[in-house]
Amino acid sequence: MGAFTYMLGSVFLISLLSLIGVVSLSVGRKRLQDFLVVFLAFASGTLLAAAFLHLLPEVHESIGEMAWTGALAGIICFFFIEKFIHWHHCGKEECHIRPAAYLNLIADGVHNFIDGIIIAAAYLTSIPLGLTTSVAIALHEIPQEFGDFSVLLHSGMKIRKALAYNFLSATTAIAGAILGFIFLNSLQGWIPYAVALAAGGFVYIATADLMPELHKETKVGKMAVQSIALLAGVLLMAAAFHFVGEH
Known about the structure:
The chain is mostly helical. It is 84% helix and 0% strand. The chain has nine helices and no strands.
């Protein structure tokens, strides 16, 4: 098999990781609702870790202070996107699906698209490097996809719809890989800015949409569990990115 075939197989398998949230359904719907806010805290941690421990430091090496400008632009853009969703989909009626769901899908779609380009670049260098890069990206996708699924459920999506939309967002990695394989030289200059915008989107979702939900809990025991879940999300992503850096 050639590098292109290996690349397509890798990004397709990584896209399937978006369905990992179905594992959480094994606890039953009632218990899932009880644990959903804890999962939300975990998602907040993974999003913040992705932005501050991986995406922004990575692009800072190539575009310097523009990384922070891009992140700020991302936060502002996602604020306006959320306002548009409120206006367009909700209006004066109750919004059955919260805007956080759509914002998360957009930001994660951009992130996955960039991952696809990175995988393409690795396979263009060599098949062994492509395989190693794919494994590294898969390891950091597992906790993040689990968190993404939790965000969609908490935002009001039905289980099947959340799985379908999360998978659709993940398949942008396939598009990124194919385009990257064909047009990598012309796309390279834009990649760091897109990554910074996605990082800003992750920060906005975690701080503006998810954390306010966590602050609604007032019982000390549940607050402690949420705090531990948030830190677990950060630490797990940090460990995954450490592996990525080593390999």
